[in-house]
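Appendix B. Chain record.
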Amino acid sequence: MAQTSVSDITPDYEAWNRVAARADEAIETGRASTNALEMLRVELADWRQRFLDAQDINRNAIETVQRQLDALGPAPEEGATEPADITAERNQLEERMDRLREPVRKAELSFTRADGLIQGIDAIIRARQTREIMEFGASPLNPVHWPEGVAALGRTFSTLRSEAISALDNPVQRDETMNNIPALLVMTVIGIVLVAWGRRWTHKLTRRILGDEPGAARWIVGFVVSMGTLFLPLFGVYFLIEAVSSSGLVGLRGSRMLDVLGPLVFTFLLARWLASRVFPAQEARTLPLNLSPESRRKGRFYGMLLGAFASGSVFLQQVGEISQWSHSASVVNQFPLMVVCSLLLLRISRLLREHVRADAAIEGEETYRSRMTGILAFLMAALSIVVPVLGAIGYFRLAQALLYPSLASIEVLAMLLVLQRVVVEFYVLVTRNRAGATESLVPILVGVALVLLSLPIFALIWGARVADLTELYARAAEGFVIGETRISPTIFLTLAFVFVLGYTATRLLQGALKNTILPKTKIDTGGRNAILSGVGYIGIFLAAVIAITSAGIDLTALGYVAGALSVGIGFGLQNVVSNFVSGIILLVERPISEGDWIEVGGVHGNVKDISVRSTIIQTFDRSDVIVPNADLVSGRVTNYTRGNTVGRLIVPVGVAYGTDTKMVEGILQEIAEAHPLVLLNPPPAVIFRGFGADALDFEIRAILRDVNYVLSVHSEMNHEIASRFVAAGIEIPFAQRDIWIRNAEVLGGGGVEPAEDKLKTNDVPESAVMHPSAPRQRDEPPDMDGDADGDSGGAGDAR
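Structure tokens predicted for this chain:
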């Protein structure tokens, strides 16, 4: 069916040639109006989209023939031969490939021509807009133009009055108006009531809903109700406009002015509502800006006036175009409103700077948000000075092009600020976590999405045409080509959607294995974790492959790019790849598992987590050590609890010389056998290690049921040993050292008797016993001649 419908999507190239010829002529002459060029551009964009779609003609057939050619292999080199039937088959397939690709090449050629024509039209339109904005005209400060501006206003009012008088003079129109008086009165009364009291009613209802401490749900309801201050007066204005229009007293120009009035009133009401949200009179919980109540009151007032004067200035501009005012008359009538708008903009910028100072005082430093607000305040202040100056010297269109888009952009920024608060409240409503709402990633991501969605609005505000945005969309939809595959946003969305489905299915499978299937098996914890990790890696890999193939991306084309980058990536990421492979080896062989007590690189601890790149070991002081997996595979690792938790304990004990060694051995054997964690098969043993420098050295050697309790068992045995030795009168010695002093008279001065005389008063050499905390000198006993280190010693030398 797809092949038979080729003729339905094949463009009419004869009609296209006529449109292209007309476009070429319009671009070359440059005499067509801007509206005519815009219409021609729309037509060219439609043709371009047709040619883009036509590039997929015969795609399936082309892929099939290409696979057949690949199966046949390349043509033989010169001088080589191959069977005649294969040569004939290859020639037939190549001829068919040429026929299939002919409409595709024709569509690509026409697409290129249409795209070039569109770019030519865009260049002409942008050049015209630039010339119009930079046009130098009359200065509103020149008194010569003032009478012309006043006369233009008078002519407009006279025209409106003459249209109303003409309608009243018409008997048919007068009778129709009299018959519609009841309906007109009802619409007028409703309009006046909504305009006069709608905002007041909404304020009362909003305060009643919010109360003193509103929750997220009440705040959201109050926010929705507060929009009544925007829409109720707007409905009232439209009722009044409809009443005036239905009266029949408005002529053609008056009707056009009323059509312009409604949107501008909405702009004013929106500015007033946004000012009330950005500078609220009362806020139960947080304020958008750190301002005092008096400053917030000024902000609401300035925002309302700015919306009113900006709307009035645009209305005067539209009235001038409808009434066909001259440029000098329009400049004179609009310049005072422009100056007032600039002054109000300057006042609001001062409020923003006040917020920046207050925020810096509270936070102690300038935050990113305050920095951005300060930049915005600076730009607003600069704009409030530049705009009146440009308008005064004669660049009035440039001043308008700077002022009104800036005001509209400020409204959009205020709307984004309000919507961000709404997003936070919705997040609090769903999660019930107000404390973490400001730090959570979800509201931030939603705020970023809102900013991205607002970019087209900013582009339109600053003079971008709808055609420019559609052109960007067309460029994005066109995508780019890699090999024989075209990558477009549709392909990206398909790829992302399929991958998310595969990833979600993988996580669900892992959850089912972890909670339902694996606990019912006899697999240990390490094996379960290895299975879960392997299922996760395989599932993600399959999800990526299925997503790529579902999107229609040719993996062969990407293989060339990957091959070209593999060498550089291999050198740069060789350690990462080594750790990755080592992680897979650890998960498959499982020399260590989560919960094992291991030693690697002098670090003791329990294995906390094994990932594909590294392993986390939690030491006994509760600090996490991240060890690359390559160190665990290629290095020396001691696993104390591999397979079981049985392990050996050694407790060294020293007793004083002269103690009955057999009694000591019996006491230590009883202590070891009495502990509940000591295995009796094999039984514990007491070893008499030898004669130390200060004590007789013994050791208790026992096998524990759980080596993880080796320290606590060691401590408990030491307590029991100390208690039993005290009861048995066995002394645990401490280190002692004899100090031999030569030439004591030198150390003590001339009044000290000679060392020889002092030694005569004792039967043994004088010794001084060191404090028990002194370091043991087991490897350095005193020499026979009394020199501690074998030196001959000199005057004043002490050991």
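Further analysis of this model is presented in Appendix C.
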